[in-house]
Specification:
With 328 residues, the chain is mostly helical. The protein is built from 14 helices and no strands.
């Protein structure tokens, strides 16, 4: 197991290096550029230097006058020491801006993951135990619709119904107008109230795939020979389903859930942007459209690290919970 983990970590480091290189190349080739926008803005001021002169000066200031490969290794050398530079868009250190916005994204991701597991797994088991019943069809249709809905469409629909028509929730933002005048408990409730629609959006569009996956694996286990043997011995259906079948269904579910763990920290870019929730996804969206290379590089490499860690944890947990898995 130790050799396997070391091997996977080394492979992950190589993959991360290649991902960072590709991301840096793409960021340097973006059609939008923060430096160009600032140079154009400054060149329009009275008695100012030309656009080309400003571009040369700002490129030298931000280290963009180097080639792509030398620029990448210069960025990598600083990144390895934990120095990701200052965000061009937010004008503060990247890690400082990250620490300000990661908390709300983590809270949303954690609540979403818990609700997804609590709702999806029981529904998947219910569909498997009542295969081809009305319950199975209804849950399958709902999960398929939720899985198929585009995030922006469903979020817009929720805002139209609950914010515009019913006026139960605000259209945008994390806090209300009177937030500063509320007590500590009132401020907590105000934030929780503003997070209802974003969390509902995330849960509905994500729980469908877990329902279908649980149902499929549960059906496969319920048709196994040892389940028929357990029933032939006279065990009641509850023990057969939850003590024998579900424990074996849990093995592949561990892999799926562990793969969802990076979502706790990566944020929901589309959902946060649509609801104007100041999380890491919302911050990274505005940084990227502004051509903020330092913040965008950090965020995208941060996503890559989370994905690699999630995959590594999934493989390790799969080997731990399944005694049939043997690593050469």
């Amino acid at each position: 197991m130790r050799k396997y983990i070391i091997k996977r970590i080394l492979i992950s480091i190589l993959i991360l290096f290649l991902v960072a290189l590709v991301v840096y190349i793409l960021m340097r080739c973006l059609p939008t550029s923060y430096i160009e926008a600032i140079a154009r803005q400054k060149s329009m001021q009275p008695n100012s230097k030309s656009f080309e002169e400003w571009m040369a000066q700002l490129s030298a200031t931000y280290g963009m006058d180097k080639g792509i490969i030398p620029g990448f290794f210069a960025w990598l050398g600083k990144a390895l020491t934990g120095q990701f530079g200052d965000s061009w868009y937010y004008t503060i250190p990247v890690l400082e801006e990250f620490s300000k916005v990661i908390g709300i994204s983590f809270i949303m991701g954690a609540i979403t993951l818990v609700l997804e597991v609590v709702i999806a797994i029981p529904l998947g088991i219910l569909c498997a135990t009542k295969q081809y019943s009305k319950t199975d069809y209804v849950v399958s249709v709902i999960s398929l619709v939720g899985y198929s809905l585009p995030t922006f469409f469903f979020a817009s629909l929720l805002k139209l119904v609950f914010s515009v028509k019913l006026e139960w929730f605000d259209l945008f933002g994390l806090v209300g107008r009177n937030y500063e005048h509320l007590s500590s408990w009132g401020q907590f409730l105000d934030k929780a109230h503003h997070l209802v629609l974003p969390i509902v959006t995330l849960v509905v569009i994500s729980f469908g795939s877990l329902v279908r996956y649980t149902r499929t694996n549960m059906l496969e286990v319920l048709n196994a020979d040892y389940i028929r043997t357990a029933r032939a011995k006279g065990l009641n259906e509850h023990k057969v389903v939850y003590k024998h079948a579900f424990r074996n269904t849990l093995i592949p579910l561990v892999t799926i859930i562990s793969g969802s763990l990076p979502g706790l920290f990566s944020g929901a870019l589309i959902t946060e942007t649509l609801y104007s929730i100041p999380g890491i996804g919302y911050a990274s969206y505005h940084a990227m459209i502004a051509g903020d290379i330092p913040f965008s590089m950090f965020y995208l490499c941060f996503l890559a690290v989370l994905t690699l860690i999630g995959n590594l944890l999934g493989d390790i947990l799969y080997a731990v919970v399944d005694p049939r898995v043997r690593l050469a």
